[in-house]
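Hi there, hope your week has been kind to you so far. It would help a lot if you went through both lines with me. No rush at all, and the record is pasted right below:

***
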Amino acid sequence: MKDYLFKLADKVRDYECDLQGVVNNSNYQHYMEHARHEFLESVGENFSAMHDQGIDGFVSRVDIRFRHSLRSGDRYISCLNVARKGVKLVFEQDIYRASDGVLAAQGIVESVIVKDGQLTRGEYFDQMLERIQKQSDSQ
């Protein structure tokens, strides 16, 4: 497993599986979204507080490659890295089965910031990444 900025461990629940007994493809996107939200919360971001200031983050694109199916009861680790590309904040997200490190899914999720109803150039991301770097340097 390569180095990641953030990792979140979790477990597949029965209701997330389809008739074949594997995790339904849509749930991998849920796993990735949950990891992004936990990551952002860990660095002091709060979507409700942002919204109250007229700032909203939106996913603009998702690309997921499914590599190996997870099954009910599997523990997994949802990992992410983040980078600024143009007006977007791009999350590189991988999900591994915890028992043996098998890569289950790889995702690229692009997000943008809208302020007072207008797409921004992503200045908010610059400030957020600066805070993340400072936290990383102090650890």
